[in-house]
Each structure stands twice: as structure tokens, then as C-alpha cells.
Specification:
36% of the residues lie in helices and 14% in strands. It is of the alpha+beta class. Strands 13-12-11-14-15-16 form a 6-stranded mixed sheet, with helices on one face. It has a 5-stranded mixed sheet with strand order 17-19-24-21-22, with no helix packed on it. It starts with a helix and ends with a helix. The protein is globular. It folds into 3 domains: 450 residues, no CATH class; 190 residues, Rossmann fold, CATH 3.40.50.410; 138 residues, Jelly Rolls (Sandwich), CATH 2.60.120.380. It is built from 27 helices and 25 strands. Helix 14 packs across helix 16. The site of one 2-acetamido-2-deoxy-beta-D-glucopyranose has 8 residues, from loops. Keywords: Signal.
């Protein structure tokens, strides 16, 4: 407890600042370390860029938070970021409810404190404790706060197998530890250790030297993990990113300032004077901050003359990304995720003035959403995460980086307890660090580049209401990655798809419909999974889900919903030998007839085609066998066919009069507004239920533009191709597709007269497939100002249009009398036979 009391004494004299800048765990964050549920990261949402954006959106949408990007980016750091928090085993395994065995003692805390108190000061209040739920608060804290957890976990033998989880090729030359390690002088160690009661952190020879040192192990743990966990990291398709540096760059860039380095010096003297007098706060907030740490720590503790930059690492799961394991335990001052966060934050910070000039009310979430997207980028296709490697030399010269870093290093030197003193040669160390950063970024950061990104991504986005009927007999560790994969790929989000988790046993709601991935993950924990009734009862669940879907259609009818989202029900089944019978088939048929736009899919662990084919709309394409393993390694391969099927379901256009009863009713003229990104395409489908009979009515769909937006829209329709396009290469049946171009004004009409004349049954008459594509292209510098600024706009460059329906009717697949009659017969049959 010796060191803890030291810290308790230390706060008394600490600067008056936000709690997160103090040398103790901030009160508001302490529950993240005290509550065992929150402390176990497996209970928190995976840390992904989507979850980060989602939580920031929630804060932006909170009615009590009324801040612009400039304020919010700073307040996020002041409220949720506290770098360097480490666990400290209490001595004698004594535990006291008065003491939290965590404190900000890792080296990253010192830069952090300067950041909050001097570089990005903030005289606004921090966000209230109730701004987001505790789970999301702790998740955000862990995404923003850089620290290393070197505790031994017991899974270290698997560390070298982590490469199988790499989503991208990030091969690196193997560096041997001995190359990086310089044996430090025990005397330096001793004095440093005495001086500041400082905790052991990342000393490579700890287990050797500490145990030989004075016969006492001091208060630290002796053994370190060979692959320590790096915290403060979020997963993106372009590598893991330290989100704290990213947000700090945005905050610093939104409020540019030159700070006199004497304001950053702790004891009013600067040991190293031959440096420039001011720093631009963007540098220490991002690149220079980590470079300075590397210089000081490696320079003093290892006596290195070449500063090592870059440490690779990997998540221990491709989908449950919660633990980022470093491949090395030394030279962890500027790891790969920190480099990425630094570059991204620096580039966005540098661009902030022009970005805010183009769109002054841009939100933090929008900026991140644009930068971490496969196409278009932050108003400029160059400003994309996939372009990171090219961006660094474009935005920062080595000279500039060296002089800014040198000045900040001198200042940080006075703030940071070190195990040695650099008396000379700081310039060479800084130059070495900057040079190594440049070469490492060019040679070793093999994240997916923009060309690959474009070929591997779709030019359409989904707006799907996905219902998952889950068989809880799946092991959680196997099915969680599959669900998480769908959440990422169909873009569950405020402006995209939604997810609802149902029980495959009885169809009851396990997790309510949500557009928030963070909320879904916060709910869908192992213990929640274990509470779901095990197994599959198709009869009960299909019936209950049908009732729910019909209810949903009724509600949409009351709300006058004309369309915009597609609906998919996916059964995820682990149990074998499903029962099928006439009653189940009848439920499926009723669902088919009364909810015509719902796509029912089955994915099961074993091939159950024979039991399931009679339940789906398209028996060749709607049933899958998925091979999920408990390690979650093959999830993309296993789920890809299911995903493609979900992607092929077009957004609905409906006549809201029909509901699920499909009594007669003509829609009259109604419309909804939708939007498409430059270069993207939206797909829609209109079921024959809405135009089956031609009764001398001029039934049609009309597309027109809403508001400004560059380029034209190309509207294609087809009766055979669910995703019609102008491009005949990617269009197998070009002759069955017709396209029209819509310029800045006017409209395009698609008439639906006699559209089912050749079909004797509604079920056999194909839907009308429709696509709306933007031919606009964002080019560097082409973006003048935001055209989509409404709250419903995901991106400021979205092009909005209106889909108008005129005189659609209502016809259902089967006469409802017949349907219920058969159903009654079926029920009777089963009742008599005692099978129910
Ligand atoms: C914040 O809220 C949580 C949960 O409501 C509570 O446990 C915690 O004590 C609060 N923290 C502060 C500093 O008020
Ligand atoms: C990843 O590692 C952490 C820490 O050891 C562990 O708790 C978690 O279960 C692991 N996750 C997976 C998917 O293996
Ligand atoms: C359709 O999706 C949007 C988000 O893209 C959502 O706001 C809306 O509530 C959804 N509507 C329905 C009926 O699901
Ligand atoms: C779903 O939401 C409703 C109302 O918001 C709530 O009453 C119900 O408990 C929720 N159900 C679940 C399973 O969370
Ligand atoms: C339909 O609306 C009613 C009344 O608002 C609500 O209780 C019910 O949960 C809604 N149904 C669905 C499926 O959302
Ligand atoms: C659902 O309707 C389609 C036609 O739209 C038909 O081919 C299919 O057999 C039907 N499926 C069931 C289960 O009724
Ligand atoms: C048409 O599609 C093919 C394949 O998707 C693509 O290679 C080609 O570039 C496209 N052509 C145009 C003009 O967009």
C-alpha cells in the first residue's frame, strides 16, 4: 500500500483541472474499475469504429448536450479519456473497499495531463454522469484511453497464433527482442524507483532484474505478459486505431493554437533549452506526443540511440474485438494503433478549418463516419483512412515534425518521471524517431489501401430491418461473432439497418429493435444468451413471429409508412432434426401471403434442407448451412452467403393502406424521401401485391429530386434482376432492364399498368425491381458546401430524392377465408392426433 499512499498525498498538490487530468481514477470513471460486470471487458461492446461513432451520436443526440464539433471533441476527451490507468496488486493480497487497485501510472498519463490542462483546455463542464449508460461510458473510456495492461493472463501461449485473426495482411519483419533491449543500469533503476514511487511498467528485463534487485520485488508484479494488452484502441477495416489520439487531433485542429512551451514545463525550468519556443497544439496532441514519449523512455531507460517506432499487435478475435494484444512488450510508446490514431487525428486536425468552412455544423460522428468509409471520404476521397500512408508525408514534413517534437519532448521531459536524464543529443534522438516513423509508416503499415478498399466494398448500403430468431443452443462464443459480423456488414446504425433478437424457441423478443450497435452489444451478453430458452420450436416461434410481423405492418399502415427499409427474418439454428409439419407450413404460408416483403431465411449448423424447403419463398437460395466454430475464426467465410442473400433483398415500397389484411384500398398519391451518396446506388422492390390487377387505374412510381446535389440520378427498373444497373457488364440480363436519367429537375415515371397480365397468380408475378444511382463523383477540392444538412442526412453530400407512389392497390396471395379454413383443418388434425 506504500505507493498508494504516495499517490493520495500527491493529489493534494495537483493542478486544479478536470478529474480525468488528476493522478487518480476520475470519480465518474471509477465504476468502470469497481463494478465487476463493467471491469470484465467481455461484457462490454466490442471496440469498433462503428460502436465509437454510435456512442458519439448518442451524445450528440442527447437533448442536454448542445455542443458543436469544436466543443464536443474537447469535452469527450475531458469526460471520458484518462490515459495510463494500470492495475496494481495490493500487497499481502489485502483488499480494501476504500482503495481501488487502479491508478493512472503508465507513462501515457503525463502527456495526457498536459493535453487536458494546457493543450486542449476546456472551461466547459464535463458531460453529466447520466449522458450515456454506464456500459457505454466505460466502453467509450476504454476506446479513448491509451494504456498498456502487462498482467499475465494465461493465454500468452496463443499470442503467436494471433496472426490468424488478422483481417488484413499486415505482415511485418520480425524484430527480435534482444535488438530492442538495452540493459539498464540498476542504479538508475533504483533511484528512479525511489524518486517517484513509480510503478513497474514495460521494462523488458523486469523479471530478471527486478528479482535480482535489492532482494525485494518492490510493489510491482514481477512477471509480465509477453503480449500485453493495449487499451484505447478501436478496430477499423484499416487497422486498429487509438481513438484518443484521433479525437485529440480533431479537438486541437478545431481550435488551433500555439502554446508557449514554458506553459508546459512543470518545475519552471527547462532542462533542454535549444528548442523552438512554441508548439502548435495539434502536434503534441497527436504525432509529437507519442514521438516524445518514445524518445524520452527509450532514450533514458534503454540508452538507445535509435528510437524504435511501431509495435504490431492483433485482436484475439476478428469480431469480438475487445482485447488488442501487442506482439512485443518493449518499445510500446508508439505502437501501430497509436501511429494510426496520430496520423488520422493529425490529418483531420489539419483539415478542420477547411472542413468546417464547407460545413460549419458538421458533427464529430459525421466526420468520423466519412473518414472511415470505403468511398467518398471527408468531402474529399483523399481524406479516407485507406489513404493514411499517403496522407502522412502530404500533411507533415520531417523538418516540421522534428522541430515541433523536439520542443514538446523538452517540455514533456520536465513532466515525466524517468529513469535517467538526457543531457545531450536530444536532437539526434528526435530525428531518429521521426525518420523511423516515416519509414515504418511507408514500409510496415500494410493496411488495406484505397484501391483494394473500393474493389472489396459495395457501392450500395443496406437499410434492412433484420430479425434474428436465435437458437440459444449455439455456444455464445460461436454465434456472437456471426451476429456481430452481420451487424458490421449490414451497417446497423442510426442511418442504416436495425436489429431485433427473437427466440427461435417461442418467437419472443429477446432484444428490442434497435438501430444502435452499442445498445445491442450492451444487451447481448453471455448471461443474456444463457437466459434465452434453448432450442427451436418452429411451430410456436413462426406463429408468434408472424403475429408480430402482421402487427408491425398494421402499425406501419397506421403511420402511413410508404417504404424505405427491407425486412429479413433469419433463423440461426444449431439444433438438429427440426420438426416440420402441416401446421408449421401453414404458418409459413400465412407469413408469405400476408407479409409479402419479408424474406425468411434459415441458416443451420447441419444441413436441414429437407425439413425447411417447404417454408421459404425460394428454396434454392433461402436455406444455408453455416459452419461456425467456437473460436469465431471462420465467420466471414461461413456467413458470406447469408450476407449476400440479405443484401439482395431490396428496400420495400408499399401501399400503406394494405397493412397485412390486404383488404381493398387504393393508395392515392403518397411518398417518402430517401438519399443516396455520390457514386452509390439504392435498390428497391415493389411486390406484385400492390399492382397485381389492372383495373383501369394509372398506377405508377415517380422519382424526383429533393434539394440540391451534384450529378444526375440514373433510375433503372427490371422485373427479373433484383439489382438492376445501367452497367451491362455487371448486369446479366441487360435487355430486361430499362434505365432513365434524372437531371437536376423533372421526374422519372415507371408505369405499372398490366404488369402482371401474363401471370395467373400473385405468387408467380415478379416484383418490380428499382434502383436509383448517383453518377456524381467527389473529387479532391470539388466539394463546395454541404447539400444535405437535415438531421436525417447521414453525409452532407448525400443527394436526396422522393419516391412517390400513385394509386397502388392491395391484393394478397391467398383469400384469407381459405387460408384460415385450411389452418383450422390443420389444427384440428393435429389436435385429434394428439401431436400438439
Ligand atoms: C455515475 O453513475 C453511476 C451509475 O448510476 C454511479 O454508480 C456512480 O457513482 C456515478 N458517479 C458519479 C461520480 O456520480
Ligand atoms: C481474448 O483475450 C481475453 C483476455 O485474455 C479473454 O478474456 C477473451 O475471452 C479472449 N477472447 C477470445 C474471443 O478468445
Ligand atoms: C427505416 O430506417 C430508418 C433509418 O434508416 C429508420 O429511422 C426508420 O425507423 C426505419 N423505419 C422502419 C419502419 O423500420
Ligand atoms: C422492449 O421495449 C418495451 C417498451 O419500450 C419494453 O416494455 C420491453 O420490456 C422491452 N423488451 C425487452 C425484451 O427488452
Ligand atoms: C404496434 O403498436 C402498438 C401500439 O403502439 C404497440 O404496442 C406494439 O408493440 C406495436 N407492434 C410492433 C410489432 O411494433
Ligand atoms: C411463398 O410465395 C412464393 C411466391 O411468391 C412461393 O413460390 C412460395 O412457395 C411460397 N412459400 C410458402 C412457404 O408458402
Ligand atoms: C461495369 O461493371 C464491371 C463489373 O462490375 C466493372 O468492372 C466496370 O468498370 C463497370 N463499368 C462501368 C462503366 O461502370
Amino acid at each position: 500500500m506504500f505507493w498508494l499512499s504516495l499517490f493520495l498525498v500527491a493529489i493534494v498538490g495537483s493542478v486544479h483541472a478536470q478529474q480525468t487530468a488528476q493522478t487518480r481514477v476520475a470519480d465518474e470513471l471509477s465504476e468502470c474499475y469497481r463494478d465487476p460486470n463493467l471491469l470484465n471487458r467481455n461484457n462490454l461492446p466490442p471496440v469498433t469504429i462503428q460502436v465509437l461513432i454510435d456512442i458519439i451520436r448518442k451524445i450528440e443526440d442527447n437533448p442536454n448536450v448542445n455542443m458543436d464539433l469544436r466543443q464536443l471533441s474537447a469535452v469527450l476527451l475531458h469526460t471520458y479519456r484518462q490515459d495510463g490507468i494500470e492495475f496494481h496488486q495490493p500487497e499481502n493480497s489485502m483488499s480494501s473497499s476504500n482503495v481501488l487497485p487502479f491508478a493512472p501510472t503508465f507513462h501515457s498519463f503525463h502527456r495526457h495531463r498536459l493535453l487536458l490542462t494546457r493543450l486542449i483546455p476546456n472551461n466547459l463542464q464535463v458531460l453529466g454522469n447520466d449522458t450515456v449508460s454506464s456500459v457505454l461510458k466505460c466502453t467509450l473510456h476504454h476506446m479513448l484511453s491509451t494504456t498498456v495492461d502487462a498482467r499475465v493472463r494465461g493465454d500468452e501461449t496463443q499470442c503467436n497464433q494471433l496472426s490468424q485473426y488478422r483481417s488484413l495482411r499486415t505482415a511485418r519483419s520480425a524484430r527480435s527482442i534482444s535488438e530492442d533491449v538495452e540493459i539498464m543500469k540498476p542504479s538508475a533503476l533504483k533511484s528512479a524507483n525511489r524518486r517517484n514511487g513509480h510503478m513497474r511498467h514495460f521494462d523488458p528485463n523486469n523479471d530478471v532484474e527486478f528479482s535480482n534487485f535489492g532482494g525485494s520485488l518492490s510493489e510491482r508484479q514481477v512477471v509480465e505478459s509477453t503480449c500485453p494488452l493495449l487499451d484505447g484502441v478501436v478496430n477499423t477495416p484499416w487497422g486498429a486505431v487509438s481513438a484518443g489520439n484521433l479525437i485529440a487531433g480533431i479537438a486541437a485542429g478545431a481550435q488551433p493554437q500555439q502554446v508557449n512551451i514554458y506553459e508546459l514545463v512543470r518545475d519552471s525550468t527547462l532542462n533542454y533549452r535549444s528548442v523552438q519556443q512554441t508548439v502548435n497544439s495539434l502536434f503534441p496532441a497527436t504525432l509529437s506526443g507519442d514521438l516524445a514519449e518514445a524518445v524520452l523512455i527509450q532514450g533514458t531507460e534503454r540508452g538507445s540511440t535509435s528510437i524504435s517506432i511501431g509495435t504490431a499487435g492483433n485482436w484475439n478475435s476478428t469480431q469480438a474485438t475487445r482485447h488488442f494484444m501487442l506482439q512485443n512488450r518493449v518499445n510500446v510508446e508508439m505502437t501501430d494503433p497509436e501511429i494510426r490514431g496520430d496520423i488520422d487525428g493529425f490529418v483531420l486536425g489539419r483539415s478542420m478549418t477547411s472542413l468546417l468552412g464547407a460545413f460549419s455544423s458538421m458533427k464529430v460522428s459525421q466526420l468520423l463516419d466519412m473518414y472511415y468509409s470505403p468511398r467518398n471520404g471527408a468531402f474529399d476521397p483523399n481524406l479516407r483512412a485507406c489513404n493514411r500512408r499517403q496522407l502522412l508525408p502530404q500533411f507533415a514534413t520531417s523538418e516540421n515534425l522534428i522541430s515541433e517534437t523536439l520542443a514538446f519532448t523538452a517540455a514533456l521531459d520536465t513532466n515525466m518521471p524517468l529513469r535517467g536524464t538526457i543531457v545531450d543529443g536530444m536532437e539526434q534522438l528526435v530525428t531518429s524517431a521521426v525518420t523511423n516513423l516515416m519509414t515504418y509508416t511507408t514500409n510496415n503499415m500494410n493496411d488495406m489501401n484505397c484501391a483494394t478498399t473500393v474493389t472489396q466494398s459495395n457501392d450500395f448500403r443496406l437499410n434492412t430491418n433484420l430479425y434474428i430468431a436465435l437458437d440459444a443452443s449455439w455456444p455464445y462464443t460461436a454465434v456472437f461473432p456471426a451476429i456481430s459480423y452481420l451487424i458490421d456488414t449490414i451497417e446497423i446504425g442510426k442511418f442504416g439497418s436495425s436489429i431485433t433478437l427473437l427466440s427461435a424457441f417461442d418467437g419472443s423478443v429477446v432484444i428490442n429493435t434497435t438501430h444502435s450497435p452499442a445498445d445491442f452489444y450492451a444487451e447481448y451478453t453471455l448471461s443474456k444468451h444463457q437466459q434465452i430458452l434453448n432450442g427451436v420450436n418452429l411451430e410456436t416461434s413462426l406463429n408468434n413471429i408472424r403475429l408480430r410481423m402482421q402487427d408491425q405492418l398494421r402499425n406501419e399502415s397506421l403511420a402511413g409508412y410508404v417504404g424505405g427499409n427491407s425486412t429479413v427474418l433469419l433463423y440461426l439454428i444449431n439444433s438438429g432434426n427440426l420438426q416440420n409439419n402441416v401446421a408449421i407450413q401453414e404458418h409459413a404460408r400465412l407469413l408469405n401471403d400476408t407479409v409479402p416483403d419479408l424474406r425468411l431465411l434459415f441458416a443451420s449448423a447441419t444441413n436441414q434442407y429437407d425439413n425447411l424447403w417447404s417454408l421459404v419463398r425460394d428454396m434454392y437460395n433461402d436455406i444455408f448451412t453455416i459452419n461456425l466454430n467456437q473460436a469465431g475464426t471462420n465467420v466471414a467465410t461461413a456467413m458470406q452467403p447469408v450476407l449476400q442473400r440479405i443484401q439482395s433483398v431490396g428496400r420495400r415500397i408499399v401501399n400503406p393502406i394494405c397493412g397485412s389484411a390486404f383488404a381493398e384500398g387504393t393508395s392515392g398519391t403518397r411518398q417518402f424521401i430517401d438519399a443516396v451518396e455520390p457514386g452509390y446506388i439504392n435498390f428497391y422492390a415493389l411486390s406484385a401485391n400492390y399492382f397485381y390487377v389492372s383495373d383501369n387505374v394509372n398506377r405508377k412510381i415517380r422519382i424526383s429530386r429533393v434539394g440540391a446535389g451534384s450529378g444526375s440520378l440514373i433510375i433503372c427498373s427490371s422485373r427479373t434482376n433484383p439489382q438492376p444497373r445501367t452497367n451491362t457488364t455487371s448486369n446479366p440480363d441487360a435487355s430486361a432492364t430499362s434505365c432513365q436519367t434524372l437531371g437536376a429537375s423533372g421526374n422519372v415515371e415507371i408505369t405499372l399498368v398490366d404488369a402482371c397480365a401474363d401471370y395467373s397468380m400473385i405468387g408467380s408475378c415478379p416484383p418490380l425491381y428499382l434502383s436509383i444511382q448517383s453518377n456524381a463523383e467527389l473529387t479532391p477540392g470539388s466539394f463546395a458546401s454541404a447539400v444535405c444538412t437535415d438531421i436525417s442526412c447521414r453525409f452532407p453530400y448525400n443527394i436526396r430524392y422522393q419516391v412517390q407512389i400513385e394509386d397502388l392497390g392491395c391484393w394478397s396471395g391467398a383469400g384469407s377465408v381459405t387460408a384460415s379454413f385450411i389452418f383450422i383443418l390443420a389444427s384440428l388434425y393435429f389436435t385429434l392426433n394428439g401431436s400438439w
